[in-house]
Write a structure and sequence with these properties.
Layout (H helix, E strand, L loop, with lengths): L2 E2 L9 E6 L1 H5 L33 E2 L2 E5 L22 E5 L2 H6 L7 H14 L2 E3 L18 H18 L5 E6 L4 H11 L7 E3 L7 H13 L9 E4 L5 H18 L5 E6 L1 H7 L3 E8 L2 E7 L43 H26 L3 H4 L5 H11 L7 H6 L2 H5 L2
Helix pairs in contact: 3-4, 4-5, 7-9, 7-11, 8-9
């Protein structure tokens, strides 16, 4: 039976895998172009790897992130793939700001703004505005050599998007900053173009005292309402942060009177692990651990004939395939997984992580007296602090009392 993660815990924050171009394309390629058409017996077709197709035989989810940064300068439309827009799904596109920041030679001012805007409008249901992440600032390297230049460019980008947008895409304005002072300065500058939601970047995106303080500012300014009811957290997917964001959503929905308010978060961990020969296992949930297990399966070209089952069954696809189905002989590769093997492992990793996040949320939704047998005490206390913050006259002061617990996440 297909596992549907889009229907699990509708009041929870949602994880979006950051899809890579290879995983976008492989499920929709001609089978004859992959291993000469010799697919593993556990796959009926390559489309079995498209986990955003409701007909998927293994698992499905209805939300994902796809970054424009992989395609900067591309003119031709993207081919149909896993992360294409389709009815019933939500594709959040990142704008490519990280890639522009890491390689300033790519930055062409208004031409880059125009390209990013049109790419997002063509490929996204929701999109991150084009920011210059503060973590890529490099003193002495133009054009993003200081906080002030990064912020000024981001404000210009927002202004361009606001003037020239032409498609029904929900845009999320980015809140950056590596210190509280930077974050406040950034917020004051970008709030003039509020768009339809907000995305947290920078080092403070996992500081819950800071997050709560910024959320309260947004509420007080009328900038978190049914017209702007999305919060996204960039580059976050640990189990502890997944449940904290669920707690924040549980607190905010009734406070805002908006059951459609949604928090999302993303990483590219499933594909990045696969690229170095690693797999997710099950969630390791106990009073001393709250993490995903990670292991190295046999992955050398010498294992191409090793008809042994996957050593862990944390995904549906792992029940159908053997180690040999991942490994194609090739002395030139770092490990034995070819394009199809990597796609299979990424599919496994995405579901394993979704399953781990589901399990972690389920533990935290238990009464505390039961949850203590399956989660560390500091995780439980931090979760409860966020979930109940609006039960207190000063929500920020209440959350600050648990700063020590948040620091251990």
């Amino acid at each position: 039976m297909t596992r549907d993660y889009s229907s699990r815990g509708l009041n929870r924050a949602r994880y979006l895998v950051a899809g890579q171009s290879a995983n976008h394309m492989v499920p929709h390629r001609s089978a004859s172009a992959v291993r000469n058409g010799q697919l593993p017996s556990g796959l009926s077709s390559l489309k079995d790897l498209d986990f955003m197709d409701p007909a998927n035989p293994f698992f499905l989810t209805d939300r994902a992130l796809h970054s424009a940064g992989q395609y900067i300068g591309r003119v031709a439309p993207l081919s149909t793939g896993t992360f294409s827009k389709r009815p019933g799904n939500v594709i959040l596109c990142d704008s490519g700001g990280l890639q522009y920041g890491r390689d300033p030679k790519l930055w062409q001012g208004d031409a880059s703004r125009e390209w990013s805007l049109r790419f997002l409008e063509a490929n996204a249901d929701e999109a991150i505005t084009l920011d210059v992440p503060t973590r890529v600032i490099t003193p002495g390297i133009l054009p993003f050599d200081s906080f002030n230049t990064a912020l000024a460019t981001t404000v210009d980008n927002n202004r361009y998007f606001a003037r020239h947008r032409s498609a029904p895409v929900r845009f999320l304005s980015v809140l950056q900053g590596e210190t509280a002072a930077e974050a406040l300065t950034w917020y004051q500058a970008v709030k003039t173009h509020p768009f339809e939601g907000w995305a947290f970047g920078g080092s403070l995106r996992v500081d819950y005292v800071h997050i709560v303080s910024m959320v309260l500012r947004l509420i007080a300014a009328g900038l978190l309402d049914p017209e702007r009811n999305r919060l996204h957290f960039l580059g976050v997917s640990s189990l502890s942060h997944a449940v904290m964001l669920s707690a924040l959503q549980v607190a905010l929905r009734p406070h805002l009177g908006d059951d459609a308010f949604q928090i999302t978060f993303d990483t590219s961990s499933p594909s990045k692990l696969g690229m170095v020969g690693k797999m997710f296992g099950y969630a390791d949930l106990s009073p001393t651990s709250f993490t995903m297990a990670i292991f190295y399966p046999p992955s050398g070209h010498v294992h191409a004939d090793w008809a042994s089952p996957f050593p862990v069954k944390s995904s549906r696809i792992s029940e159908a395939l053997n180690i040999s189905d991942l490994c194609a002989p090739a002395w030139t590769r770092q490990h034995g997984w070819d394009e199809l093997g990597n796609a299979i492992v990424t599919h496994h990793n995405v579901e394993s992580l979704l399953r781990g996040i589901d399990d972690a949320n389920s533990i935290m939704e238990l009464p505390s007296a039961w949850a203590v047998d399956h989660a560390p005490a500091h995780v439980i206390r931090a979760y409860r602090a966020l979930k109940t913050m609006f039960d207190h006259s000063d929500p920020l002061a209440h959350v600050r009392r648990f700063r020590g617990d948040f620091s251990k996440l």
